[in-house]
Each structure stands twice: as structure tokens, then as C-alpha cells.
């Protein structure tokens, strides 16, 4: 772990690769430093004193020592949806403010109150256990509720995942803003595919869609650099009816022109779906029937497959990691961290993270009933 430290107004200040800021009174630091490593001090610092550098929200640093498991939550850790693809979520927070964001991420978020970052060695160790259960031919898909390339330990994570013997494919979902030719060159030996979120080739539309000043020309150059590298490229736009309809054809042409899709499909157009806690721009919402009819017409026109299925990416059903918790269970546990949104808290039960709807504070005990256990992601309600 790379740290910088300096003193100011009687406090020790740590910056972890410019992402996390932790302030500890000097008198406390000197006592802790005699007993613990800097990593330990950061892991166990008062949570309210740790901030996400981009969103400025409270940041929970998840290490093995924290006692927080990596299965059970949608925002961080690992997600097993019963296939050979395992979602790897190392960090939350986003550098954009997309109008269609399904989880209301970014600096302008009105609902997210807590962010999370997972220590890379811990993430790889737990991933290896899940991959071992799944068997050969696993895909590690790095995504998240936000932008994965904000993760300051991406090199370590990629290197660790590549060493897992069951891994066949490593892929990443990104908006591309933080990518560079240097990173692409460095990650060629680890990454197999980048799913790049570009939803328009028009600069004015881009500012509306991404909710901020968006370096479109730069992202276009990054897309070309990926396509020219050993990493495969999939262009992944979100179709917003009435906003970027004509961009779908332009993006198909762009993907084919630059050589995307060396091994997998060159473009995967996504339907805009309004979610309960997501942003809801004033656009028409296509039915799935209409969406697929439009894709079929574009398939015929351009001779490229647009209606994609799991098998197009080698995704197949595999046994799920056994769930020790089920809907209807009544349990009691101590709250270990704040949840993603106000009114949520995190507890640990039977080696899993559970999100509990409660106004109790961190450190208190809460009795609750599991009300949802979809894909091993647990939600509970206080009793």
C-alpha cells in the first residue's frame, strides 16, 4: 500500500494514492503507530474521518481485518448470479453524473451517503475461493455502482485475478474518462475485454447525457487505442429514446470502423430502464418488444449482431455459492457500517453482509427479518 503522510495542525494526514484522506489526532497516532502498521491504522480509523476523494462521502475501507465479508452486498465485493461470470466490485463512486444512472451515482447524487473500497489482496483471496467453487472457465468482470477505474489498486487487482487458475477471461466496464494509452499498454497482459460506455458522438448531447463536462474527443481516442491493442473492445451505449436515437447507427459504424469486437461482439446497445433509486430523465421508455424490433432492423442494415445473449460471451450456468441465509430468517447482529443510502446499515451474519433498513447507529445491535435474498444479495427489515 502506497502512502504519503504529513502533519498539519496537530494531525497526521494520510493520502492513499490521492483517493482517501484520513485524519488522526497526533497524540492518538503516536500511540497507535507503536503497536500497529499504517495500513491497520487506516483500516480502523474513525469511519467519519475517511472520505472518498471524488464524491466527498464517507468511505468504508473493507479489509479482512475489518470483519466485513465480500459476499452479500450489491455495491462492493463479489456477486455470484449462478453463472461462470463473477462480478468484482472494488469501489463505489463515480466521476460522471449520467442522467440515466441506475444507482444515482456521482458528485450530484441525492441518495448515496456512503462509499466503499476493498483492499486488493482481500478481494483476490475471496475471489479465488469463489472461482475454485465454480471450476475452470471463469470470467472475472470488474464493474460496480460507479466507475471501477477510480480504484487506486487496479494494477494489483488485475495481476492477482490473472493468477487465479480458473480464470479464462478478465473484463471491465468503464466510462473510459480515466483511461490512458499508458494504462491500456500496461493492462494488455491482464485484460481480455473492455466494455466502454459511449452513448453519443455529439459533444452537446454528451454533456447532457453524462451530466458534466465530458471529454468526448479524448474518449474516442481511447476507444481507438483499445481497439488497436490486444484488449478487445465492446462499445456499450445506453439508448435514450428521443435523445440519442440517431447515435445508435453512428456508434455501430464507429465500432466497426475502428475494429472493435475482435473476439466478442463489437457493440452492445443497452435499453434505458428506470430504477427506483436511479435517475429518471424525461425520455420515453421503450418496451422490450419495441427495443428488440429496432435492434433487429439495425442488425439487418449493418450485418452485425445486436441482440446479444449470455452465450455470445461464453457465459453459462454454474452452481451458486450456497446461501447460509434465506428470506424469512429472523436474526440479530451488531451494525458494523453505514449503508449505501440513508436509513440503511450493514451487519455481518453467517459470513455474509446484510443490509438492514434501520435508523440505529453503527455499533448498536439490531433484530431483523430477511425480506430479500436475490442472487445472494441480502436485504432485511428491522423488527
Strand order of the largest sheet: 6-7-9-10-11-12
Helix share bin: 25-40%
Average pLDDT figure: 90
Structural shape: globular
Number of strands: 19
Poorly predicted spans? 1-16, 37-48
Per CATH, the superfamily of the largest domain is Aldolase class I
CATH hierarchy: architecture of the largest domain: Alpha-Beta Barrel
SSE arrangement, N to C: EEEHHEEEEEHEHEHEHHEEHEHEEEEE
Q: What's the helix count?
A: 9
Distance between the termini: 41 Å
CATH fold name of the largest domain = TIM Barrel
Domain count: the total is 2
How would you sum up the major sheet?
A: 6 strands, mixed
Describe the protein's architecture and organization.
It is a single chain. By secondary structure, the chain is of the alpha/beta class. It folds into 2 domains: 75-99 and 118-313, Aldolase class I (TIM Barrel, Alpha-Beta Barrel), CATH 3.20.20.70; 330-382, OB fold (Dihydrolipoamide Acetyltransferase, E2P), CATH 2.40.50. Helix content is 25%, strand content 26%. The strands form 5 sheets. It has a 6-stranded mixed sheet. Strands 15-16-17-19-18 form a 5-stranded mixed barrel. Helix 3 runs parallel beside helix 4. The protein is globular and about 60 Å long. Residues 1-16 and 37-48 have low confidence and may be disordered.
Amino acid at each position: 500500500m502506497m502512502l504519503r503522510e504529513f502533519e498539519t495542525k496537530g494531525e497526521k494526514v494520510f493520502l492513499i494514492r490521492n483517493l482517501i484522506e484520513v485524519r488522526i489526532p497526533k497524540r492518538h497516532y503516536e500511540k497507535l503507530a507503536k503497536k500497529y502498521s499504517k495500513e491497520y491504522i487506516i483500516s480502523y480509523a474513525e469511519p467519519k474521518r475517511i472520505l472518498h476523494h471524488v464524491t466527498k462521502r464517507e468511505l468504508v475501507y473493507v479489509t479482512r481485518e475489518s470483519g466485513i465479508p465480500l459476499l452479500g452486498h450489491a455495491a462492493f465485493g463479489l456477486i455470484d448470479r449462478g453463472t461462470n461470470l463473477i462480478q468484482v466490485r472494488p469501489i463505489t463512486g463515480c466521476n460522471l453524473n449520467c442522467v440515466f444512472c441506475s444507482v444515482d451515482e456521482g458528485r450530484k447524487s441525492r441518495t448515496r451517503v456512503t462509499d466503499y473500497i476493498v483492499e486488493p489482496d482481500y478481494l483476490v483471496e475471496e475471489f479465488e475461493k469463489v472461482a475454485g467453487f465454480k471450476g475452470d472457465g471463469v470470467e472475472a468482470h470488474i464493474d460496480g455502482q460507479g466507475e471501477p477505474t477510480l480504484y487506486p489498486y487496479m494494477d494489483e487487482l488485475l495481476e492477482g485475478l490473472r493468477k487465479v487458475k480458473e480464470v479464462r477471461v478478465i473484463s471491465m466496464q468503464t466510462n473510459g474518462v480515466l483511461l490512458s494509452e499508458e494504462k491500456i499498454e500496461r493492462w494488455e497482459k491482464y485484460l481480455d475485454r473492455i466494455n466502454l460506455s459511449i452513448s453519443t458522438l455529439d459533444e452537446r448531447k454528451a454533456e447532457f447525457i453524462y451530466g458534466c463536462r465530458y471529454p468526448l474527443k479524448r474518449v474516442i481516442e481511447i476507444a481507438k487505442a483499445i481497439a488497436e491493442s490486444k484488449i478487445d473492445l465492446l462499445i456499450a451505449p445506453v439508448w435514450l429514446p428521443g435523445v440519442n436515437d440517431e447515435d445508435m447507427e453512428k456508434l455501430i459504424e464507429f465500432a466497426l470502423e475502428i475494429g472493435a469486437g475482435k473476439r466478442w461482439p463489437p457493440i452492445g446497445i443497452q435499453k434505458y430502464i428506470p430504477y427506483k433509486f436511479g435517475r429518471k430523465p424525461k425520455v420515453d421508455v421503450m418496451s422490450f418488444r419495441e427495443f428488440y424490433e429496432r435492434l433487429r432492423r439495425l442488425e439487418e442494415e449493418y450485418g452485425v449482431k445486436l441482440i446479444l445473449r449470455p452465450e455470445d460471451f461464453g457465459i453459462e450456468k454454474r452452481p451458486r455459492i450456497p446461501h447460509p441465509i434465506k428470506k424469512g430468517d429472523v436474526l440479530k447482529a451488531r451494525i458494523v457500517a453505514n449503508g449505501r443510502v440513508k436509513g440503511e446499515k450493514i451487519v455481518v451474519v453467517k459470513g455474509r453482509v446484510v443490509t438492514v433498513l434501520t435508523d440505529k447507529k453503527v455499533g448498536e445491535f439490531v433484530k431483523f427479518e430477511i425480506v430479500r435474498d436475490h442472487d445472494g444479495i441480502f436485504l432485511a427489515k428491522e423488527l
